Structures are given as C-alpha cells and as structure tokens.
Predict the 3D structure of the following.
Amino acid sequence: MHDTTDLIEARLRRFIHERLRPNVHTVLTPLRVASWEVPGEPVPFTEAMGQIYQPFTAGARWGKPWGTTWLRLTGTVPEAPGAELLLDLGFNEAEPGFQAEGMVYRLDGSIVKAVEPRNAHVPLEAAPGEQFELYLEAAANPDLAEGFRYFRPTDLGSLETAGDEPLYELRQADIAVRNFEVWEVLQDATVLSQLITELPGSSPRRAEILRALERMMDTADPDDIVGSAAEARAELAGVLSSPAAASAHRVHAIGHAHIDSAWLWPIRETQRKIARTFSNVLSLQQEADFVFAASSAQQYAWLKKFQPELFSRVRDAVASGKFVPAGGMWVESDTNMPGGEALARQFVRGKRFFMEEFGVEPLDVWLPDSFGYSAALPQIARAAGSRWMLTQKMSWNETNRMPHHTFLWEGTDGTRIFTHFPPVDTYSSQLSGADLARAERQYAEKGMANTSLVPFGYGDGGGGPNREMIAAAERLHSLEGSPTVTLSSPAEFFAAAEAEYEHPPVWSGEMYLEFHRGTYTSQVRTKQGNRRSEHALREAELWATAAALRGGEYPYDELDRLWETVLLQQFHDILPGSSIGWVHREAERRYEEVLASAERLTVGALGVLVGEGATALVANAGPYAQGSLEAMAVVASPVASPGAGTATILTRTDEGFELTNSQLRVRIDNAGLIVSLVVRATGRETIAPGKRANLLQLHRDTPTQWDAWDIDEHYRRQVIDLTDVVSIEQVSHPTAAVVCVIRGRGATRITQTLTLAADSAALEIETVVDWHERQKLLKLAFPLDVHTDRASSEIQFGHVQRPTHANTSWDMARFETVAHRWVHVGEAGFGVAVANDSTYGHDITSRPREGGGTFTNVRLSLLRAPLYPDPEADQGEHTLRVSIRPDSSIADAAREGYRLNLPPRQLLGGNPVASVLSVSSDAVIIEAVKLAEDRSGDVIVRLYEALGGRASTTLSTSFAFGAVIETDLLEREVDAAVVDSVSGEQVALTLRPFQLVTLRFRAPRAAG
C-alpha cells in the first residue's frame, strides 16, 4: 500500500483548523456593550456598578497598561440549547496569564466565571427569552514575557513608566450556541492527532488511528459540519474504545493552576488572578467531576478578604473534596534564603489557616517552581506534620539530570520525606499527547514503579483547567498507545505511589538548582528587608514573651500580621529578586512598615520589663553572650576601665596602615586592601601568600537568558579588580581602629570602612555602594590561607558542606552557592569565618597557592545590575556589612553571624532583666521564643543542634512552668525524644546532629 501518511496528517491539520474549530459555535447576535474606564487602581464591583457607562462596540480599543475597564453586557437569552457568551478581549497567541484577563459578575456582585484566552466562554444562567445584564471587569495586563525569547528591558513594569496607550481591542462580545457534536468530534480528533504524533511511524496502532481520522474527514460534509458531525464522530468510536496496555504508564492528573503571588505583575493583580481562576474551576466543576489542588494559604486569605462570596463557595467545594488546599505553606516560598524560623512559620501560618478555615491539614509540600531546595526542608516539613513533597523545578537543571522521579529525600539531620518529581516536566500540562508521552518516556523508576503525577491547567491567571482538558482526560483514561489517565487528588496519588514503591532510592542533601543562581543576589534591598525583618521579629517576640510573663499583653494579632507580610515576600519571585520593579518597590515599603512596627513592639515590651529609670542598659536578644552581655537578657551597660585591655592601635606606615588589638594585627596597604591578618596569640597568618583581601571585583554579567535570575559560568572570564583609590584615611574613634577607603568608577562610588574594635576577634568591613552599573556583578574576595576541599555554609537550622573543587559535573555546576549569615572554611587546627548582614550569594573555590598547596578564595556576591524584568534593579545606594574572623570554629561563625545581624540595643530603664532562657552548650541555638499559637499563654521555645554533632545541654528558664512537652511545629504534642529530665526550672536535653526541637512550657497550675 502506498504511504500517504504525510498527506493525511496535513489534511487533518487543515480540517481541524478550518472546519471543526470555526463550527464549534454558531453566533446568534452581538451583545449590547457599554464601558467605564477606571481612572486609577482597580475598584470593587459595588463602586463600578454605580458609574456612568458609555456605548462601546467590538473593534474599539481599550485598556492602558495595568488599567481596568468595566464592560456592561446586556442581551436576551436565545431559545436554542447550548447558548453562552463568547468574549475576546483582544487575546493573542502569547501564553494565557501574560495578557488581558476578565471576570464576569452578576448584578448581585457574585462572580460567574473568568474570561481568558483559552477559556473565553461564559454560561448564560437566565431562562430562554429572558433579558440579562452582566458586568465584565477587564484587566489590561501587558505582556512582559514576550514568550521569554528576548529578556529585553521594558518600561511596562512600573505604573510611572508604562504609558497610557491602549493595549487591546475588543474583538468579540456575542451570544452564541455551542454545537455539542462538533465540539465532541473536535476533542476526539485533537486527542487522536496528538497521540499519533507520539507513536512510532511503523506502529500498527498509529496507522489504525490515522485511517480512522481519514474516514472521519471523508464522512464530514464540509458544507454542513454541524449536521454531519455525529456521523463523522462515529468513525472514531472504534479507535477510541481500544484500551491501554496493561503495562502502560499510569498518570494521576490533578487540576491545578500555578499562580505566582507576584512576578511580572503586582500583588494586587495576583489577588484578581486568584478570583478569576478559582471561579473558573467552580464553574467547570458544575459540569465535570475532577479535583482541583491549589496551594498558598495567602491566596485563599486574599480571596476571603476581597471576594467573600466566592470564598464561601470554595469552602463548600473543599468540604466536598473537589477543591483541595495543597502544600500547607503561606506561599510557595523560596527555600534557599528564608531563615530557619521563617521557613518553619511558612508551615505554621499556612497550616493554621487551612485548619481554621476549612478543617483540613495538607500533608503534602507543594513547591513545583522554587529555585532549588534547602537540605533543611525535609526536617522542617516533617516537623510540620507533612508526609510528602512535590517539586518540578529540578527539571530545569542546565548540566545534570536528577536520577530519580520518586524517591526519599534526606535532609541534614537524616529526616526523610517521600518526594515526587513529575517526569512530565511541567506544572501546567494541557494533558496533550506530547505531555503524556514525555511523562512515560522520562520516568526514571521503570521496572520498580509505574505511576506519576501530572498537574494540568493554565497558570498565572490563564484560568486553570478548561473543559477541553477534562475532555482529553476522559478520552485518555484507557486508550491504546497512551499512558492511562486518572483524574485524581494529591493524597490519592501519593498513597498509590507509596504503595507501589516499597523501597524508593534516597537523595541526600540539598537539591541544588543548576540554574537561576543570580537569584541569591538580585534586588539587594528586598533581601536586606527580609533579613532585617526576620531578626526584628525574633527580637520582638522574645521581649514580648518576657513582658507577657510579667503581666504584659502579648501582641498576637500584630505579630501575625507582620509575619504574614514577611512570609508573603519570601515568595519565590519576590525574595529572589526576579519580579518587576513595581513588586520590589512595594516590598521595600512593606519591609519598612514591618521594621517600624517590630521596633515599636520591642521598645514597648522592653519598657514593661525594665521599668522607668535612667540606668544605662543593654538588651541582647541574640542566643549568644557577647562579652559581658548575657544572651537574651538586659544588663547594665558595661563601663570600660582605662587601660583594661580595650585599646586598639592604628599606625600609619609608608605601605598603608596597621591596626592592632588584643586579638588581631591587620595590615592594610595604600589601595585599601588587606595584605595581612594575623592572629596575635599564635602568629598564624590568614591571608594567602602574595594575595590581598577585601578585593572588590567587577564582572561582566550578561546571562544567556533570564537576566535577573541567572549568573552564567562565563561571567568569570571578564573581571576588573577595583584597586584605584580616591582617598584612604584614618577615622577617629574612641576605642576602635578605623580606616576609610573611597573608590570610584564612572558614576559608581564605593566607600569602605574597615573597623577593628577593641578586643574583637573579627575585622568588620562596611561597604557603601552608590551603584550605577548595568549588567555587572560586584564581588568581594577574601583569599584565605586555608587548605580545604570543602566549605561550610549556614542554612536553616544548621549548615551544609560543599566542595571547593570541580571534580564532577555536579561540583562544576555548583559555581555559585547560597549561605545565610556566615560561611566557614577550615583545615586542621585553623578556620576562618566570613559573616555578613544581608548577602546570600557566594562562590568558594580552591586555588593554587604561592609556595605550594592551595588556598581558599571566599567571595561574596554583593550586587548585580540586570535589566530584565526591572531595568532599574539595584540602582542607587546600598550598605552591606561583612566581617572576617580568623582562628574560628563553626560555633564562632554562628556567634559572629548573630553578632552582625542582631546587635545589642542601648536603652534607659530602672532595672536589668535576667536571661529569659539559656543553654549550657554552644552547640545548641535557641532560634525562637514566643507564646503559643492557641493563645493559651504557654511559652514555645524552638532550638536546634548547630554544629553537626550530638549535644547534651541544660536549658534554664527564668520563669516557672508546670510542665514541658515536646511538640511539632504546629505545637501539637509528640513522643518525647530529647528531654532527659526536668529539675525545677532546668531541662536536660540530648539532641542528635542538626535536630530541630520545639518545646512547649505549660503555665504553672494555680494553687487550690
């Protein structure tokens, strides 16, 4: 037989495009349309309804960038069955969610559904012959994505620069009838045409389907597609009824819409995207039986606040099991940069919302799109009561492919969580033949297991699942040549996956994303706001707890509000710095509000504690003592005695400056670079031979794609050492030795202040940069005379060790890494800590040493200047603090990190305050002290083992308690594992390496 495959396929493509699609609907009559353009930011329905509307017709232009236009739609419901509205706001071929969107309201203010590029119909609820009036809120969101082909600067990311020219044209506003048989045959033909594309050319099944499709086209009358559709469809019944093979891959399809809480649009637009998507889902669930899973308690909270009627319907759908809150977190956060307590609070606040509002606790961690996953996350998730985790982003790795799709992920402390990484490689599937074939082809567990998850639905405001996807799922439930498709839920999938895979493989340690490495550095002000807010909230909670124990009022509501802001802004496109300028300017403003509120709470609580008076006091909220300042206590301000070992000496030499105190001797050359850093007690030099530290290095930073997201390896090939000096001089200081260096490069000016404080074991460097570079990366280098093949970097509740070499492709790809407050490198008997107050990006490498061996080059990534999506990213002034502490241990590094980030505060009062809590071991850090979420007045203490070893410690309290119990993060009692004994106000504990512990101190029972 002659091979006519190509001709049939070409004919089929044209038949679908020219015959089927245009005949799905028969247009009956245009709607009557009137419009009102909102003069500013969006307004609620009640306000829009009362405005004066002007006549508006199809073909008219509307919508300045980020503007809102309300359309009043009126007409009469036709007698024909299947009548609905068809609306085209000017949609283009770009991805749904990155262009115009709309939402249709009834006269009572309730929402019918949304209007999106791939979901543009609206049901008519009035009876035939009745008139109707609806209101469409149309959002003129600009397309900043451009298909992610160009990554070019745009003015559209800010209201101030976006302009006023209308972006869209209303193309259609009609009453039409859906021709069901045509629609059904279109779905049949679509599924089968996609399937044959994935089948081998020599497959008999492929030929069978192709001939059936040919017969369908022969049967259809091109002059009467509507009338002949049923007969044409019958030709496909046979091939559609052939069941899947017993060995076919099993797909659990779950309705989903990944909605970024902010990104290429502001938060206020996300709030509307959520309502649009959720209304679409509820509308679709009236005609189709499927489960929709949506994460992020924050998004539900917005819905409750701004669309309470729709939220009530969502609550009903949750109760019925058709709408599933997923993930259990406040947002789908970044997991690299949030501090340990903040990442814990993502679960505490998220699960608390879901349990209070819906009576359900999500048991999965749903993070498909975050930019890598901290090794601390398994323990945090399990401590929050979660059992499973889903991620997708690791498929974006540039160099190495993850070896597993279903596995146990093991964290720093040895905790494991059952994890699935969908082989479909998307969290926005359309259930296409290509998607399903990819899932089966790439599934790495073949022979051991055979089940994977496919999240389907348009995200980011594209509307979620649509009826075409449901139709595909129904046809693919069991279809020969395809994986089977079961409409499912997260819990059903994970139960099935666990049951079939008794001994899955283990992935140990962080899941480092070999991509988007620039997110550790972009938008420094946002990152500084996060770091400062985390520490400010620790301080506020500690002192508020202490004050409450003395009869003060604990600010539960305000602390909740502040935490919710911080948790929101840890979303994986806000904290990483990958959003439009609008988002980041708003984040900076909100951080300022958080810091101001936290400061007010702290000052108020300390006022309750110390009382009125004029005694000079110092409050240390950190977990470590600082000199004579006890940890978590308020003490009398120490008064230095003249000559009592507090002097520092600064000497000007021909070569530069020499700074000396009781601990260190530092030599700085005339270029402001550190040429020597000696530990006086041992004479040990810290700086590698022939090298200079505090070296600012400027690199070209032109990523291949994803500007704000990426640092590409090729940046290393172009570098300028910034050694020219405008001025260098001694700065007068009563107790410290201080040198100030000023450098300039074009419009950029850099001022560094190097300070050696009296008796300090660390040299502190403050760098103030007035930054006006474009597409540049600024690094700060410390070449350390330390021979090591690994570096320790602080993460949540501990640290990880990473190679300083590039032995393997995995090591090579990890050329930029994340750390929190400190990194540490060491050889036997000597280590060096480099701490920071707001920097996350680092690269730490082993280099050849003059005289033999190797040294370790520690570099911090201070600033970037990407042009997309925010062309003004990081422009302006920044202040960043770094310290270098030689002859240090991991415990010293942790101490130094807290010293930089949570300095003691001076105050006046009547009396000191004893340490609220203390531990007897430096290995154990108290991370949080607060009152219980249930507002019982119980004290919650969160602590962890920080050094990576077993630790025994005594926890002492300054308050009486009735009992102490171990709990999970949600403060629910768990089996005792770490409390050895309790004696009075002392608790003996034993922790395993990196173990996270939450203790609940019950209030003493009242006598009698």
Q: What stands out?
A: The mean pLDDT is 97. The longest strand covers residues 854-864. The CA atoms of residues 66 and 651 lie 60 Å apart. Residues 581-610 form the longest helix (30 residues).
